[in-house]
Design the sequence.
């Protein structure tokens, strides 16, 4: 499966067309969406409000922004809602236009893409495989001296690692003294909320945080995310934001989720249990090496003499999508990523991996 530099997982339509498999028969391990997050309350509230599609959405997302301000204990002027966290990334680069940004890699590829489109360039800090791709804080601080900004995905996609709150705070404090801006993408923070640095927003003008409803709450098709920062930065973002980017049903879903947060607490335990199951069984396959993760996905290295694109194709023929990670800067064609799904689905993934690796390759 050929992958361009900025392509992503989740293209079940391409696989369906290529291999003549109905989309609803494809198991998608390539996107990091919570399999238990299909919260029925969202479906019900959307059905109840379906007639909203006949009206223009609120360009300011007032109801959702108000709910977020209550939930985050921040003023509404510190929040901007977007068509997924990805839109906020592009708007941030467009409004601030940094000339050079430090990006620890491997990480989410859209940071680099958004930066390029705004006329800036990336300065990569390559995370080391031998240390399970853990970010070295002191090395990062040295790297940012001749740049305006640093972007950190925490927890990181695709490695699954997380920097604890104290280390993130050290980065923000040091960067502030150096006059540098820090962007922290917390799109996966709902899987480990204790490590968020959201409480530092009020004290640090140089900090901007990205959040997503897509991953933990499983509304990828609605596209909903938000950014949190100083009033000045939020105002700049809103000045370049296109109108009506967040549709009415997405806003309604976001409000419903925030009003029912208690229902989602048990989901973390389910994910932790299935992640442990996947990691344990992947570790038993000699041809691969999984890396520790705190999220709902696991990065895996192929030790056998074949590529991630080959493996992805073989799995796709069987109706299973995995994320070929060869287009991540800092990774090679020996890496793939899998999402944590439900037990029977996870068993099917492991079974097919064993069949393909055992039947066709020496290791």
Sequence:
């Amino acid at each position: 499966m050929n992958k361009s530099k900025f392509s992503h997982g989740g293209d079940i339509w391409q696989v369906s067309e290529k291999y003549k498999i109905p989309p609803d028969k494809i198991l998608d391990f390539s996107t990091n969406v919570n399999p238990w997050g299909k919260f029925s309350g969202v479906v019900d509230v959307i059905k109840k409000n379906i007639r909203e599609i006949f009206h223009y959405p609120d360009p300011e997302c007032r109801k959702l922004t108000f709910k977020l301000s209550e939930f985050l204990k921040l003023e509404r002027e510190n929040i901007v809602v977007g068509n997924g966290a990805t839109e906020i990334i592009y708007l941030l680069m467009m409004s601030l236009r940094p000339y050079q940004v430090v990006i620890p890699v491997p990480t989410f590829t859209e940071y680099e893409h958004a930066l390029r489109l705004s006329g800036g360039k990336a300065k990569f800090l390559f995370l080391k495989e031998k240390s399970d791709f853990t970010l070295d804080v002191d090395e990062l601080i040295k790297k940012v001296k001749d740049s305006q900004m640093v972007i950190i995905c925490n927890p990181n996609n695709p490695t699954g690692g997380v920097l604890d709150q104290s280390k993130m705070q050290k980065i923000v404090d040091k960067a502030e003294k150096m006059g540098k801006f820090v962007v922290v993408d917390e799109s996966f923070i709902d899987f480990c909320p204790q490590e968020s640095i959201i409480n530092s927003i009020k004290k640090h003008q140089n900090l901007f945080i990205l959040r997503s409803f897509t991953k933990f709450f499983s509304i990828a098709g609605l596209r909903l995310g938000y950014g949190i920062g100083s009033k000045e930065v939020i105002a700049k973002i809103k000045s370049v934001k296109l109108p009506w980017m967040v549709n009415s049903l997405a806003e309604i879903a976001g409000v419903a989720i925030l009003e029912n947060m208690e229902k989602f607490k048990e989901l973390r335990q389910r994910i932790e249990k299935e992640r442990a199951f996947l990691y344990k069984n992947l570790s038993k396959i000699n041809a691969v090496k999984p890396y520790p993760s705190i999220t709902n996905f696991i990065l895996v290295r192929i030790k056998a003499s074949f590529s991630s694109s080959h493996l992805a194709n073989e799995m796709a023929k069987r109706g299973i999508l995995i994320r070929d990670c060869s287009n991540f800067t800092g990774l090679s064609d020996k890496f793939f990523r899998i999402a944590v799904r439900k037990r029977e689905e996870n068993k099917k993934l492991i079974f097919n991996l064993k069949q393909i690796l055992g039947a066709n390759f020496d290791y």
